[in-house]
Amino acid sequence: MTSSFEALLPSTERALSHRVAVAQAEGRAPSFVGAVARDGRRVWSGSRSCVDGHAPDADTQYRIGSLTKVFTAVLVMRLRDEGLLDLNDPLEKHLPGTRVGEVTVAQLLGHSAGLGAETPAPWWERTPGTVRPELADVLGDEPLVQPMGRRHHYSNPGYTLLGSLVEAVRGVSWEEALRGEVLEPLGLTRTSTQPIAPHAGGWAVHPWADVMLPEPTEDLGLMAPAGQLWSTADDLCRFAGFLAQGDDRVLCAASVEEMRTPAAPPAAGDWEGGYGLGVQLVHKDGRTLIGHTGSLPGFVACLWVSVADGVAAVALANATSGPLTAAVAADLVRIVADAEPRFPEPWRPLPEAEVDQELLELTGPWYWGTYAFGLRLGPGRGVALEPLRGAGRRAEFRPLPGGGWIGLNGYYAGETLRVVRRPDGSVSHLDLASFVFTREPYEQGDAVPGGVDEAGWRGL
Prior knowledge:
By secondary structure, the protein is of the alpha+beta class. The chain has helices at 10-27, 68-81, 91-94, 105-109, 135-139, 156-170, 174-186, 224-227, 233-245, 253-259, 325-339, 357-362, and strands at residues 31-38, 41-49, 62-63, 203-205, 212-214, 230-231, 273-275, 280-284, 287-296, 299-306, 311-317, 364-368, 371-377, 383-387, 395-399, 405-407, 416-421, 427-432, 435-437. The strands form four sheets. It has an eight-stranded antiparallel beta sheet. A seven-stranded antiparallel beta sheet has the order 2-1-11-10-9-8-7, with helices on both faces.
Protein backbone atom coordinates (compact mmCIF):
# COMPACT_ATOMS: atom_id res chain seq x y z
CA MET A 1 0.00 0.00 0.00
CA THR A 2 1.23 3.46 -0.86
CA SER A 3 -0.53 6.56 0.42
CA SER A 4 0.08 10.27 -0.05
CA PHE A 5 -2.12 12.73 1.81
CA GLU A 6 -1.45 16.40 1.11
CA ALA A 7 -4.77 18.03 2.09
CA LEU A 8 -6.11 17.70 5.60
CA LEU A 9 -9.43 16.03 6.31
CA PRO A 10 -12.41 18.43 6.55
CA SER A 11 -12.93 17.45 10.18
CA THR A 12 -9.30 18.32 10.98
CA GLU A 13 -9.57 21.66 9.19
CA ARG A 14 -12.72 22.52 11.14
CA ALA A 15 -11.01 21.71 14.45
CA LEU A 16 -8.08 23.96 13.49
CA SER A 17 -10.36 26.80 12.41
CA HIS A 18 -12.33 26.49 15.64
CA ARG A 19 -9.14 26.69 17.72
CA VAL A 20 -8.05 29.89 15.97
CA ALA A 21 -11.52 31.40 16.34
CA VAL A 22 -11.55 30.68 20.07
CA ALA A 23 -8.02 32.08 20.42
CA GLN A 24 -8.98 35.36 18.73
CA ALA A 25 -12.18 35.73 20.75
CA GLU A 26 -10.85 34.74 24.16
CA GLY A 27 -7.52 36.50 23.62
CA ARG A 28 -9.30 39.65 22.46
CA ALA A 29 -6.91 39.98 19.53
CA PRO A 30 -7.56 42.43 16.68
CA SER A 31 -6.47 39.60 14.39
CA PHE A 32 -5.07 36.09 14.68
CA VAL A 33 -3.43 33.84 12.08
CA GLY A 34 -2.74 30.13 12.48
CA ALA A 35 -1.01 27.76 10.07
CA VAL A 36 0.09 24.13 9.98
CA ALA A 37 2.85 22.51 7.94
CA ARG A 38 3.63 18.86 7.36
CA ASP A 39 7.17 17.93 6.38
CA GLY A 40 8.01 21.57 5.64
CA ARG A 41 4.98 22.31 3.45
CA ARG A 42 2.03 24.41 4.61
CA VAL A 43 -1.16 22.37 4.44
CA TRP A 44 -3.57 24.70 6.24
CA SER A 45 -3.97 28.29 7.36
CA GLY A 46 -6.83 30.17 8.93
CA SER A 47 -7.47 33.55 10.51
CA ARG A 48 -9.96 35.71 12.35
CA SER A 49 -10.23 39.48 12.54
CA CYS A 50 -12.25 42.04 14.44
CA VAL A 51 -13.05 43.73 11.13
CA ASP A 52 -15.47 41.79 8.93
CA GLY A 53 -14.09 41.05 5.50
CA HIS A 54 -10.55 42.05 6.39
CA ALA A 55 -9.09 38.88 7.85
CA PRO A 56 -5.33 38.51 7.28
CA ASP A 57 -3.88 35.53 5.45
CA ALA A 58 -0.69 33.47 5.49
CA ASP A 59 1.11 36.21 3.51
CA THR A 60 0.40 38.99 6.03
CA GLN A 61 3.44 40.11 8.01
CA TYR A 62 3.43 40.18 11.80
CA ARG A 63 6.30 41.13 14.07
CA ILE A 64 7.74 37.92 15.55
CA GLY A 65 9.88 39.27 18.41
CA SER A 66 12.22 36.71 19.94
CA LEU A 67 11.66 34.22 17.15
CA THR A 68 14.38 36.41 15.63
CA LYS A 69 16.84 34.74 18.02
CA VAL A 70 16.58 31.44 16.15
CA PHE A 71 17.69 33.15 12.94
CA THR A 72 20.61 34.79 14.75
CA ALA A 73 21.62 31.43 16.22
CA VAL A 74 21.63 29.90 12.72
CA LEU A 75 24.11 32.57 11.58
CA VAL A 76 26.40 31.77 14.52
CA MET A 77 26.22 28.02 13.83
CA ARG A 78 27.20 28.71 10.21
CA LEU A 79 30.35 30.46 11.45
CA ARG A 80 31.13 27.42 13.58
CA ASP A 81 30.58 25.00 10.70
CA GLU A 82 32.92 27.06 8.51
CA GLY A 83 35.64 26.84 11.17
CA LEU A 84 35.63 30.59 11.83
CA LEU A 85 34.88 30.08 15.53
CA ASP A 86 34.34 27.38 18.11
CA LEU A 87 31.30 27.33 20.36
CA ASN A 88 33.64 27.05 23.35
CA ASP A 89 35.54 30.18 22.32
CA PRO A 90 35.33 33.05 24.79
CA LEU A 91 33.53 36.03 23.27
CA GLU A 92 36.66 38.11 23.87
CA LYS A 93 38.52 36.14 21.20
CA HIS A 94 36.31 37.55 18.45
CA LEU A 95 34.66 40.59 20.05
CA PRO A 96 37.07 42.22 22.51
CA GLY A 97 36.23 44.98 24.93
CA THR A 98 32.74 43.98 26.02
CA ARG A 99 33.62 43.44 29.73
CA VAL A 100 31.94 40.01 29.55
CA GLY A 101 34.52 38.51 27.25
CA GLU A 102 35.06 35.31 29.22
CA VAL A 103 31.56 34.04 28.52
CA THR A 104 31.52 31.55 25.66
CA VAL A 105 29.63 31.55 22.40
CA ALA A 106 27.74 28.42 23.48
CA GLN A 107 26.72 30.05 26.77
CA LEU A 108 25.33 33.03 24.91
CA LEU A 109 23.39 30.80 22.50
CA GLY A 110 21.85 28.79 25.35
CA HIS A 111 21.26 31.73 27.74
CA SER A 112 23.63 30.38 30.38
CA ALA A 113 26.23 33.18 30.21
CA GLY A 114 24.86 34.85 33.35
CA LEU A 115 23.90 38.09 31.59
CA GLY A 116 20.94 40.15 32.71
CA ALA A 117 17.58 39.54 31.09
CA GLU A 118 17.15 43.12 29.83
CA THR A 119 19.07 46.29 29.03
CA PRO A 120 19.24 49.23 31.42
CA ALA A 121 16.19 51.54 31.30
CA PRO A 122 14.38 52.78 29.30
CA TRP A 123 12.60 49.61 28.15
CA TRP A 124 14.33 48.64 24.92
CA GLU A 125 11.23 47.25 23.21
CA ARG A 126 9.40 50.62 23.22
CA THR A 127 12.34 52.92 22.54
CA PRO A 128 14.46 53.47 19.41
CA GLY A 129 17.81 51.76 19.10
CA THR A 130 19.51 55.16 18.97
CA VAL A 131 19.05 55.27 22.76
CA ARG A 132 21.65 52.47 22.94
CA PRO A 133 24.26 53.27 20.27
CA GLU A 134 27.06 51.17 21.84
CA LEU A 135 27.30 47.69 23.38
CA ALA A 136 28.14 49.34 26.70
CA ASP A 137 24.69 50.97 26.59
CA VAL A 138 23.09 47.56 26.04
CA LEU A 139 25.01 45.81 28.82
CA GLY A 140 24.99 48.50 31.51
CA ASP A 141 27.34 48.84 34.46
CA GLU A 142 26.72 45.34 35.88
CA PRO A 143 26.01 43.03 32.94
CA LEU A 144 26.46 39.74 34.85
CA VAL A 145 23.68 38.84 37.27
CA GLN A 146 24.24 35.06 37.50
CA PRO A 147 27.35 32.82 37.65
CA MET A 148 28.62 32.03 34.15
CA GLY A 149 27.60 28.63 32.81
CA ARG A 150 25.71 27.50 35.91
CA ARG A 151 22.06 27.95 34.99
CA HIS A 152 19.69 29.04 32.27
CA HIS A 153 18.81 32.73 32.56
CA TYR A 154 17.14 34.22 29.49
CA SER A 155 19.04 37.23 28.18
CA ASN A 156 18.05 39.61 25.40
CA PRO A 157 21.38 41.50 25.57
CA GLY A 158 23.13 38.15 25.03
CA TYR A 159 21.70 37.99 21.52
CA THR A 160 22.79 41.56 20.83
CA LEU A 161 26.31 40.30 21.55
CA LEU A 162 25.79 37.37 19.17
CA GLY A 163 24.60 39.72 16.43
CA SER A 164 27.67 41.88 16.96
CA LEU A 165 29.80 38.71 16.90
CA VAL A 166 28.37 37.82 13.48
CA GLU A 167 29.20 41.30 12.21
CA ALA A 168 32.75 41.17 13.60
CA VAL A 169 33.56 37.77 12.06
CA ARG A 170 31.68 38.23 8.76
CA GLY A 171 32.62 41.86 8.17
CA VAL A 172 29.06 42.74 7.13
CA SER A 173 25.98 43.86 9.04
CA TRP A 174 23.79 41.34 10.86
CA GLU A 175 20.93 42.21 8.50
CA GLU A 176 23.04 41.67 5.37
CA ALA A 177 24.37 38.35 6.66
CA LEU A 178 20.86 37.21 7.57
CA ARG A 179 19.42 38.11 4.19
CA GLY A 180 22.19 36.55 2.11
CA GLU A 181 22.90 33.45 4.21
CA VAL A 182 19.48 32.42 5.53
CA LEU A 183 16.48 34.26 4.13
CA GLU A 184 17.33 34.12 0.43
CA PRO A 185 18.57 30.49 0.34
CA LEU A 186 15.43 29.28 2.18
CA GLY A 187 13.09 31.38 0.03
CA LEU A 188 11.82 33.46 2.97
CA THR A 189 10.95 36.41 0.77
CA ARG A 190 8.44 37.87 3.24
CA THR A 191 10.73 37.93 6.28
CA SER A 192 12.39 41.31 6.83
CA THR A 193 13.73 43.72 9.42
CA GLN A 194 11.15 46.37 8.50
CA PRO A 195 7.43 45.86 7.76
CA ILE A 196 6.46 45.35 4.12
CA ALA A 197 2.81 45.52 3.09
CA PRO A 198 0.57 43.71 3.64
CA HIS A 199 1.37 43.78 7.34
CA ALA A 200 -0.61 43.97 10.57
CA GLY A 201 -0.50 46.96 12.86
CA GLY A 202 0.42 46.44 16.50
CA TRP A 203 -2.20 47.16 19.17
CA ALA A 204 -2.56 47.21 22.94
CA VAL A 205 -5.99 46.05 24.10
CA HIS A 206 -7.22 47.57 27.37
CA PRO A 207 -7.32 44.85 30.06
CA TRP A 208 -10.71 45.99 31.45
CA ALA A 209 -12.47 47.45 28.41
CA ASP A 210 -12.92 46.55 24.76
CA VAL A 211 -10.85 49.45 23.44
CA MET A 212 -7.46 49.55 21.72
CA LEU A 213 -4.36 51.74 21.55
CA PRO A 214 -1.75 51.63 18.76
CA GLU A 215 1.72 50.50 19.86
CA PRO A 216 4.92 52.14 18.55
CA THR A 217 7.01 50.25 16.02
CA GLU A 218 10.65 50.99 16.80
CA ASP A 219 13.84 50.11 14.98
CA LEU A 220 15.73 48.29 17.73
CA GLY A 221 19.24 49.10 16.52
CA LEU A 222 21.84 46.94 18.26
CA MET A 223 19.04 44.90 19.83
CA ALA A 224 17.73 43.82 16.41
CA PRO A 225 19.28 40.30 16.57
CA ALA A 226 17.16 39.69 19.68
CA GLY A 227 13.76 40.64 18.26
CA GLN A 228 13.57 42.82 15.14
CA LEU A 229 12.08 40.57 12.48
CA TRP A 230 8.71 40.61 10.73
CA SER A 231 7.47 37.45 9.02
CA THR A 232 4.44 35.58 7.73
CA ALA A 233 2.81 32.24 8.47
CA ASP A 234 3.94 31.04 5.04
CA ASP A 235 7.59 31.89 5.63
CA LEU A 236 7.59 30.46 9.14
CA CYS A 237 6.17 27.17 7.85
CA ARG A 238 9.12 26.98 5.43
CA PHE A 239 11.50 27.82 8.26
CA ALA A 240 9.92 25.06 10.35
CA GLY A 241 10.87 22.53 7.67
CA PHE A 242 14.46 23.76 7.90
CA LEU A 243 14.49 23.42 11.70
CA ALA A 244 13.32 19.82 11.37
CA GLN A 245 15.48 18.61 8.49
CA GLY A 246 18.25 21.14 7.85
CA ASP A 247 19.28 22.44 4.45
CA ASP A 248 22.86 22.10 3.23
CA ARG A 249 22.68 25.58 1.67
CA VAL A 250 22.30 26.99 5.19
CA LEU A 251 23.00 24.36 7.90
CA CYS A 252 23.31 20.61 7.61
CA ALA A 253 20.88 18.31 9.39
CA ALA A 254 23.44 17.41 12.08
CA SER A 255 24.01 21.07 13.03
CA VAL A 256 20.28 21.78 13.18
CA GLU A 257 19.86 18.71 15.39
CA GLU A 258 22.61 20.09 17.63
CA MET A 259 20.62 23.31 17.98
CA ARG A 260 17.64 21.25 19.16
CA THR A 261 19.68 19.51 21.89
CA PRO A 262 19.39 20.89 25.47
CA ALA A 263 22.33 23.19 26.15
CA ALA A 264 21.77 24.21 29.76
CA PRO A 265 19.87 22.81 32.75
CA PRO A 266 16.40 24.32 33.17
CA ALA A 267 15.53 26.47 36.15
CA ALA A 268 14.42 24.56 39.24
CA GLY A 269 10.87 23.33 38.83
CA ASP A 270 10.77 23.98 35.07
CA TRP A 271 11.09 20.37 33.98
CA GLU A 272 8.59 20.71 31.12
CA GLY A 273 10.92 22.83 29.03
CA GLY A 274 14.49 23.64 28.17
CA TYR A 275 16.68 25.54 25.75
CA GLY A 276 19.08 24.40 23.07
CA LEU A 277 21.33 26.62 20.97
CA GLY A 278 18.87 29.36 20.09
CA VAL A 279 15.84 27.04 20.21
CA GLN A 280 13.24 26.55 22.93
CA LEU A 281 12.24 22.99 23.86
CA VAL A 282 8.95 22.07 25.49
CA HIS A 283 7.21 18.80 26.38
CA LYS A 284 3.49 19.02 25.70
CA ASP A 285 0.78 16.41 25.16
CA GLY A 286 3.34 13.61 25.25
CA ARG A 287 5.51 15.05 22.50
CA THR A 288 8.59 17.26 22.26
CA LEU A 289 8.16 20.61 20.52
CA ILE A 290 11.02 22.80 19.34
CA GLY A 291 10.88 26.37 18.12
CA HIS A 292 10.44 29.72 19.85
CA THR A 293 7.93 32.18 21.22
CA GLY A 294 8.11 35.89 20.53
CA SER A 295 6.60 39.17 21.65
CA LEU A 296 7.09 42.88 21.14
CA PRO A 297 4.63 45.64 22.00
CA GLY A 298 1.65 45.05 19.74
CA PHE A 299 2.52 41.48 18.74
CA VAL A 300 2.83 37.91 20.03
CA ALA A 301 4.02 34.92 18.01
CA CYS A 302 4.98 31.27 18.27
CA LEU A 303 6.42 28.55 16.05
CA TRP A 304 6.42 24.94 17.31
CA VAL A 305 7.73 21.90 15.44
CA SER A 306 7.18 18.26 16.37
CA VAL A 307 10.04 16.62 14.50
CA ALA A 308 8.80 13.13 15.33
CA ASP A 309 5.36 13.84 13.84
CA GLY A 310 6.57 15.93 10.92
CA VAL A 311 4.08 18.64 11.97
CA ALA A 312 4.69 22.33 12.65
CA ALA A 313 2.33 25.12 13.64
CA VAL A 314 2.48 28.91 13.60
CA ALA A 315 0.36 31.30 15.67
CA LEU A 316 0.53 35.08 15.13
CA ALA A 317 -1.52 37.89 16.70
CA ASN A 318 -1.31 41.68 16.82
CA ALA A 319 -1.98 42.37 20.48
CA THR A 320 0.52 43.16 23.22
CA SER A 321 -1.03 40.60 25.56
CA GLY A 322 -3.98 38.26 25.76
CA PRO A 323 -3.64 35.80 22.86
CA LEU A 324 -1.89 32.63 24.09
CA THR A 325 0.03 31.92 20.90
CA ALA A 326 2.31 29.28 22.48
CA ALA A 327 -0.66 27.26 23.72
CA VAL A 328 -2.52 27.67 20.43
CA ALA A 329 0.45 26.57 18.31
CA ALA A 330 0.88 23.49 20.51
CA ASP A 331 -2.83 22.72 20.13
CA LEU A 332 -2.64 23.03 16.34
CA VAL A 333 0.22 20.51 16.29
CA ARG A 334 -1.73 18.16 18.55
CA ILE A 335 -4.92 18.38 16.51
CA VAL A 336 -3.17 17.35 13.29
CA ALA A 337 -0.75 14.83 14.79
CA ASP A 338 -3.51 13.03 16.71
CA ALA A 339 -6.18 13.12 14.00
CA GLU A 340 -3.89 12.35 11.08
CA PRO A 341 -0.72 10.60 12.32
CA ARG A 342 2.04 10.29 9.78
CA PHE A 343 2.51 6.98 8.01
CA PRO A 344 5.80 5.25 8.82
CA GLU A 345 8.26 4.67 6.04
CA PRO A 346 7.81 1.20 4.53
CA TRP A 347 10.19 -1.44 5.81
CA ARG A 348 13.00 -2.14 3.37
CA PRO A 349 16.03 -4.44 3.59
CA LEU A 350 19.40 -2.79 4.06
CA PRO A 351 21.44 -2.08 0.92
CA GLU A 352 23.62 -5.05 0.03
CA ALA A 353 26.80 -2.97 0.46
CA GLU A 354 26.00 -2.35 4.14
CA VAL A 355 25.73 -6.03 5.10
CA ASP A 356 28.55 -8.47 5.67
CA GLN A 357 28.84 -11.72 7.57
CA GLU A 358 31.01 -10.32 10.38
CA LEU A 359 28.41 -7.68 11.19
CA LEU A 360 25.58 -10.20 11.09
CA GLU A 361 27.44 -12.47 13.50
CA LEU A 362 27.51 -9.65 16.06
CA THR A 363 23.74 -9.22 16.13
CA GLY A 364 21.48 -10.81 18.71
CA PRO A 365 21.64 -11.14 22.51
CA TRP A 366 24.54 -9.91 24.65
CA TYR A 367 24.81 -9.78 28.42
CA TRP A 368 26.18 -7.06 30.67
CA GLY A 369 26.40 -9.12 33.83
CA THR A 370 22.89 -10.58 33.97
CA TYR A 371 21.23 -7.75 32.04
CA ALA A 372 20.10 -8.91 28.60
CA PHE A 373 20.64 -6.64 25.60
CA GLY A 374 20.06 -7.04 21.89
CA LEU A 375 22.42 -5.72 19.22
CA ARG A 376 20.67 -4.76 15.99
CA LEU A 377 22.25 -3.82 12.67
CA GLY A 378 21.09 -0.44 11.35
CA PRO A 379 21.57 1.68 8.24
CA GLY A 380 25.00 2.90 7.24
CA ARG A 381 26.67 0.00 9.08
CA GLY A 382 25.51 1.49 12.37
CA VAL A 383 24.19 -0.55 15.28
CA ALA A 384 21.69 -0.15 18.10
CA LEU A 385 21.99 -1.67 21.56
CA GLU A 386 18.76 -2.01 23.51
CA PRO A 387 17.58 -3.79 26.66
CA LEU A 388 15.49 -6.90 25.99
CA ARG A 389 13.45 -6.55 29.17
CA GLY A 390 12.20 -3.46 31.00
CA ALA A 391 13.74 -0.02 30.93
CA GLY A 392 17.45 0.38 30.37
CA ARG A 393 20.17 2.17 28.52
CA ARG A 394 19.31 2.17 24.85
CA ALA A 395 21.63 3.82 22.35
CA GLU A 396 22.39 4.03 18.67
CA PHE A 397 25.94 4.02 17.33
CA ARG A 398 27.56 5.11 14.09
CA PRO A 399 30.69 3.44 12.73
CA LEU A 400 34.13 4.97 13.23
CA PRO A 401 36.65 5.06 10.36
CA GLY A 402 39.20 3.02 12.30
CA GLY A 403 36.73 0.41 13.52
CA GLY A 404 34.16 0.29 16.28
CA TRP A 405 31.24 2.66 16.82
CA ILE A 406 30.54 5.86 18.71
CA GLY A 407 27.36 6.43 20.73
CA LEU A 408 24.87 8.97 19.42
CA ASN A 409 22.38 9.33 22.26
CA GLY A 410 21.42 8.44 25.79
CA TYR A 411 23.88 7.31 28.45
CA TYR A 412 26.40 6.16 25.85
CA ALA A 413 26.51 9.36 23.76
CA GLY A 414 30.13 9.92 22.76
CA GLU A 415 31.28 6.58 24.18
CA THR A 416 33.05 3.98 22.05
CA LEU A 417 31.73 0.49 21.39
CA ARG A 418 34.33 -1.96 20.08
CA VAL A 419 34.68 -5.65 19.39
CA VAL A 420 37.41 -7.47 21.37
CA ARG A 421 38.72 -10.64 19.70
CA ARG A 422 40.68 -13.61 20.98
CA PRO A 423 44.11 -14.52 19.57
CA ASP A 424 42.43 -16.89 17.10
CA GLY A 425 40.27 -14.06 15.74
CA SER A 426 36.97 -15.18 17.28
CA VAL A 427 34.87 -12.63 19.16
CA SER A 428 35.50 -12.56 22.90
CA HIS A 429 33.21 -9.72 23.99
CA LEU A 430 32.04 -6.19 23.33
CA ASP A 431 33.62 -3.33 25.26
CA LEU A 432 31.52 -0.22 25.85
CA ALA A 433 32.99 2.45 28.10
CA SER A 434 34.71 -0.34 30.11
CA PHE A 435 31.47 -2.36 30.35
CA VAL A 436 31.92 -5.91 29.10
CA PHE A 437 29.12 -7.56 27.11
CA THR A 438 29.42 -11.34 26.69
CA ARG A 439 27.36 -13.84 24.74
CA GLU A 440 26.36 -15.69 27.92
CA PRO A 441 25.78 -14.27 31.42
CA TYR A 442 28.88 -14.91 33.57
CA GLU A 443 30.18 -17.75 31.40
CA GLN A 444 33.29 -19.52 32.66
CA GLY A 445 36.35 -18.41 30.69
CA ASP A 446 34.76 -15.21 29.43
CA ALA A 447 36.41 -11.85 30.03
CA VAL A 448 34.19 -10.93 32.97
CA PRO A 449 35.70 -8.22 35.20
CA GLY A 450 36.44 -9.72 38.62
CA GLY A 451 36.18 -13.29 37.30
CA VAL A 452 33.42 -15.90 37.73
CA ASP A 453 32.98 -18.18 40.75
CA GLU A 454 34.46 -21.57 39.81
CA ALA A 455 31.50 -23.44 41.28
CA GLY A 456 29.27 -21.85 38.69
CA TRP A 457 25.52 -21.36 38.90
CA ARG A 458 23.68 -23.16 41.74
CA GLY A 459 20.28 -23.53 43.29
CA LEU A 460 19.13 -22.85 46.82
